[in-house]
Amino acid sequence: MKKLIFTLIFMSVTFTCLAQNSFDRTIKEISKDLADKLKLLERKKAVVLFVTDINKTVTTAGTYIADNISYNLVNDPSLKIFERENLQGITEAKKLIDEGYISAEKTKELGKLLAVNAIIVGNYTILNNTIKLSLKALSTDNGVTIAASMINLPLNLDICKVLNINCSGANEDSQDSKCKEKNTGDYCFINNKSYDLNIRIKDSRYRDYEYTVISGEKQCIFDLPSGTITYDVIENRYKGGYNYTFDSRTNKRTPEVFQVSGTLYVETCKQKIFTFK
Questions:
Q1: What is the mean pLDDT of residues 23-40?
Q2: Superfamily of domain 172-276
Q3: Between the CA of residue 238 and those of 160, 194, 235, 269, what are the distances in Å?
């Protein structure tokens, strides 16, 4: 029994690590690109100050990314990187991190304070299946950008949980090991509304599927043929029937319902997510 529990724990940890590998490998790639540029410029003393979101806000995701970039740069023996953990103990650095902005004058001041000749800052934008990350290295002589790198970080549901970000568009791999030869994929629907939803799907082979997605839960449809699917959604808010509005001019009742239709694309060997917010 103990052996079985250990095996299950090992498999769970291994799966999570594998899911994160592509994300972390891509961070390592952009870190190396920036490191190579800094070395060419003879700017070998640096600090990763912050990575913010598009609104210049320091977030859990930004901190995670910045920590990883700093870690990768520290492992380059040609560079001397100021430890990010020590920044919180420096009032001026902490203030700049909280603000998510650094001026040319502050760049020079911080360069002298930390004994570095390059300050790395960045920002990210969350897209459908990726995070677009851009990094800049600023000269501590005058605050001018001396190097820059940009890359798309791949997302999946596991890494979105780590980063504490909305991951409604992220892809997972299909659970079917024969999906490639069958040319199939999966689609999951997440219901974030306060009431249940009735969903009707028609796949590319004109087969119909009907499901009720309970409020706060997820419903997945597996082994859908690759291609376009259509969906119709209607709310299921009232157990005793729908709520109606009465029009005294026509003496008719109209149900008050959320109703929407649309199309989605099923990708071979991928499990996609659609969220009703």
A1: 93
A2: Carboxypeptidase-like, regulatory domain (2.60.40.1120)
A3: 33, 11, 9, 37
CA distance 44 to 41: 8
**Cα gap 53→60, rounded to integer Å:** 10
- Per-residue pLDDT reduced to its tens digit, 208-224: 888 888 888 888 888 88
Name the token pair of 53. Answer: 């979101």
Contact 263, 231 (CB under 8 A): yes
Burial bucket for residue 61 (CB in 10 Å: 0-12, 13-18, 19+) = buried
Is the Cβ–Cβ distance between 20 and 14 less than 8 Å? no
Phi, psi of 181 (to 5 degrees): -75, -25
Report which residue type is found at 134. Answer: S
**Are the CB atoms for 188 and 272 separated by under 8 Å?**
yes
- Chain centroid to CA 9: 25
Asked whether the beta carbons of 231 and 214 are under 8 A apart, the reply is no
For residues 106 and 22, the model is more confident at: 106
- Is-contact 270 169, C-beta < 8 A? no
What is residue 270's three-state secondary structure? strand
Give helix 60-74 / helix 2-40 axis angle, nearest 10°. 70
Give the rounded percent of residues in the chain with a pLDDT score beyond 90.
32
Structure confidence at residue 231 (pLDDT): 84
Q: Could you give the C-alpha distances from 247 to 52, 99, 241, 250, 254, in angstroms and in order?
A: 51, 54, 18, 6, 8
Q: What are 188's strand-pairing partners? A: 220, 273
CATH architecture of 2-163: 3-Layer(aba) Sandwich (3.40)
